[in-house]
Design goal:
- By secondary structure, the protein is an alpha/beta fold.
- The chain has a single domain (about 30-195), classed as 3-Layer(aba) Sandwich (Rossmann fold), CATH 3.40.50.620.
- It has 6 helices and 7 strands, in the order αβββαβαβαβαβα.
- A 5-stranded parallel beta sheet has the order 5-4-1-6-7, with helices on both faces. Strands 2-3 form a two-stranded antiparallel sheet.
- Helix 1 crosses helix 6 (about 175-195).
- It is elongated.
Length: about 210
C-alpha cells in the first residue's frame, strides 16, 4: 500500500508540474502575441500560409497587408516572402505572396522570394541562407500573433537577429474561441520545439 500511495503521489506531482509548465507557456504565448517590435531592419520576412493557385488565403493576406504597411513605414527596404508548395501546386507560397505584394503597390525589385519550406523551421532556415548570402542579418518577422514566440525562437537558433511584428487582423484574431484554440496549439508546438528542436508537423497546415 505504501508503494501504491507513493506512486500515486509521484504521478499526481508529475501531472501537476506538466499542467503548470503548459499554463506558463500559454501565458508566455499570450503575452508575446501582444508585443510589436518593428525596429529598422535589413528585411521584413513574411512567413507563408495557404495559397490557392497563386491567390493568398485570408490568413496569408492578413500577413501580407501587415508586411506591406511595415515596408511603407520604412521599417526595412525589402520584403522577403517565404514558403514552398504542395505536390500539384503551380505556385509556391512565396511566389503567391510576391504576386499579392506587387498587385498592392510594392515594386518587384523590393521583394525577395524564398520558395522553400514546408514548416516554420525549414522556411526560416532557407531565409537565413538567403540573408547570409546577401550580407543581411536583421529582420522583422511577420506572422500571426500566437505564432511569434516560436517563430522568434526558431529564427534566433538559425542565426537571424529577429524582431517581431504580428498581424492584428484576419481569421487568427477574429474570435475569442479562435484565439484560445491557437494559443493552446502554439503552447504545445513551442514546448515540442524546445524539447525536440523540430517543427510540430509539416504539410499545408504546417507550423
Amino acid at each position: 500500500m505504501i508503494l501504491i500511495r507513493l506512486a500515486i503521489k509521484m504521478v499526481a506531482a508529475f501531472v501537476s508540474l506538466a499542467l503548470l509548465v503548459l499554463a506558463v507557456t500559454a501565458g508566455l504565448v499570450w503575452w508575446t502575441a501582444r508585443q510589436d517590435d518593428r525596429r529598422v531592419s535589413d528585411a521584413i520576412v513574411v512567413l507563408g500560409a495557404a495559397q490557392f493557385d497563386g491567390r493568398a488565403s485570408s490568413i496569408f493576406t492578413a500577413r501580407l497587408v501587415h508586411a506591406r504597411n511595415l515596408w511603407r513605414d520604412d521599417v526595412a527596404p525589402r520584403i522577403i516572402t517565404v514558403g514552398g508548395n504542395q505536390v500539384g501546386d503551380r505556385f509556391t507560397e512565396a511566389s503567391a505572396g510576391k504576386r499579392w505584394l506587387i498587385d498592392h503597390g510594392v515594386p518587384a525589385r523590393r521583394i525577395v522570394v524564398v520558395p522553400t519550406g514546408s514548416d516554420t523551421l525549414s522556411s526560416l532556415s532557407a531565409t537565413q541562407d538567403r540573408m547570409q548570402g546577401r550580407g543581411w542579418s536583421t529582420a522583422v518577422i511577420v506572422t500571426d500573433p500566437w505564432h511569434v514566440l516560436r517563430a522568434r525562437s526558431m529564427a534566433s537558433d538559425q542565426g537571424i537577429d529577429a524582431a517581431l511584428s504580428p498581424t492584428r487582423r484576419g481569421p487568427a484574431v477574429r474570435q475569442r474561441s479562435t484565439e484560445i484554440r491557437y494559443i493552446a496549439r502554439e503552447s504545445f508546438a513551442y514546448l515540442y520545439w524546445k524539447i525536440f528542436h523540430r517543427s510540430a508537423d509539416s504539410g499545408p497546415n504546417a507550423v
